[in-house]
Automatic annotation (TrEMBL):
Gene Ontology molecular functions: NADH dehydrogenase (quinone) (non-electrogenic) activity; NADH dehydrogenase (ubiquinone) activity; quinone binding
Catalytic activity line of the entry: a quinone + NADH + 5 H(+)(in) = a quinol + NAD(+) + 4 H(+)(out)
Enzyme class: translocase
Keywords, comma-separated and alphabetical: Cell membrane, Membrane, NAD, Quinone, Translocase, Transmembrane, Transmembrane helix, Transport
Record-annotated membrane-spanning stretches: 6-32, 64-84, 96-114
Originating gene: nuoA
Family: Belongs to the complex I subunit 3 family.
Gene Ontology CC terms, in alphabetical order: NADH dehydrogenase complex; plasma membrane
HAMAP family cross-referenced by the UniProt entry: NDH1_NuoA (MF_01394)
Gene3D superfamilies: NADH:ubiquinone/plastoquinone oxidoreductase, chain 3
Compartment list: Cell membrane; Membrane
The protein's name: NADH-quinone oxidoreductase subunit A
Subcellular location, principal: membrane
Signal peptide: none
């Protein structure tokens, strides 16, 4: 099987990446600290020096996930403002109207979230 010369760098990079992962995993296994079996105090979980209370598998409130989704949503909005802020003169009136439409859509989303009570932290 003859591979075109353009595939050689790709295969080389893939080989280096797979080799790095394999060496890292093997190195961590053989050179890393060994865990002793048993029920000693050293092997127990601690949070900031305080013994753990409860189970780690308890469900979280949906507020945490909703906060993360809202953060990503409005953070991406800011990312899309940057190209407009850098090139607003070149975009002219057409670009301004496009950004105004974009902002209007996000304001509608913000007011929807607000009316639905997603921003009420006391509930």
């Amino acid at each position: 099987m003859n591979l075109p010369e353009s595939y050689i760098p790709i295969l080389l990079q893939a080989g280096v990446a797979i080799g790095f992962v394999a060496i890292s995993l093997l190195g961590a296994h053989f050179l890393g600290p060994k865990q002793k079996k048993g029920d000693s105090v050293k092997n127990q979980s601690w949070e900031c020096g305080v013994p753990v209370e409860g189970n780690a598998r308890t469900p979280f409130s949906i507020k945490y996930f909703l906060t993360a989704v809202l953060f990503v949503l409005f953070d991406i909005e800011i990312v899309f403002f940057y190209p407009y802020a850098v090139n607003f003169r070149e975009f002219g009136m057409e670009g301004f109207l496009a950004v105004l439409t974009f902002v209007a859509i996000f304001f509608m989303a913000f007011f929807y979230v607000w009316k639905r009570g997603a921003l009420d932290w006391d509930k």
